[in-house]
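Budget justification aside, the reviewers requested a transparent look at the raw inputs and outputs of the sequence design task funded under Objective 1. We therefore reproduce one unedited record. The lines immediately below are the structure tokens for a 194-residue chain.
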């Protein structure tokens, strides 16, 4: 087990399943013997506002919080959230983002315009960007709500242990009636990075 603490941020919009993704991730790290701290920061989650979860794991983790420039990986469920939290990613870090766009309230109300070239601008930064059409893959798996599990499948490539660990954590955590969809969503996300 590595001595250093790894920092992951999961960012999205209320209702996208960021909290389930962080729960699955935390459970997987605990099962592999890591000390884990998970901290949830809710914005206006019930109204489609920004939701952020910090997941920190290592031999010994003292604080659940991640400061700017410290995240090893950011998993973004939506492009604007990827841009909003990018400053927290350390140089050379990994941004895994869905290509999905969800209009925030100022855009819905006509007071702002959704930025068009966000991913292009992010790719110019000193970070690795992996952009996946997670929503389409989730629909292919059987539910648009499985976007979070698709992104977890992509992230699994960077988290240091076998795919089987993640699959077992999914099976033991999600409601029984959703296991098949979630397993398929994870497999599609995993394959999207291969």
């Amino acid at each position: 087990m590595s001595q250093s603490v790894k920092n992951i941020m999961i960012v999205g919009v209320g209702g996208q399943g960021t909290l389930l993704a962080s729960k699955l991730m935390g459970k997987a790290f605990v099962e592999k013997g890591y000390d884990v701290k998970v901290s949830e920061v809710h914005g206006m989650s019930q109204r489609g506002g920004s939701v952020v979860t910090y997941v920190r794991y290592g031999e010994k983790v003292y604080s659940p919080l991640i400061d700017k420039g410290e995240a090893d990986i950011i998993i973004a469920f939506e492009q604007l959230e990827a841009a909003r939290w990018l400053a927290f990613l350390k140089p050379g870090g990994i941004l895994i983002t869905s290509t999905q766009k969800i209009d925030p309230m100022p855009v819905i109300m006509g007071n702002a315009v959704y930025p068009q070239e966000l991913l292009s601008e992010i790719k110019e930064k000193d970070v690795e960007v992996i952009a996946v059409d997670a929503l389409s893959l989730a629909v292919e798996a059987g539910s648009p709500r499985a976007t979070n599990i698709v992104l977890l499948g992509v992230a699994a490539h960077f988290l240091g242990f076998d795919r089987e660990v993640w699959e077992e954590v999914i099976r033991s955590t999600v409601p029984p009636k959703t296991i098949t969809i979630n397993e398929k969503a994870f497999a599609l996300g995993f394959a999207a990075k291969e």
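The helical segments are 18-31, 79-85, 105-108, 118-123, 134-141, 147-155, 163-173, 179-193. The domain at 6-193 is CATH 3.40.920.10 (Pyruvate-ferredoxin Oxidoreductase; domain 3). Computational costs for records of this kind are itemized in the attached budget.
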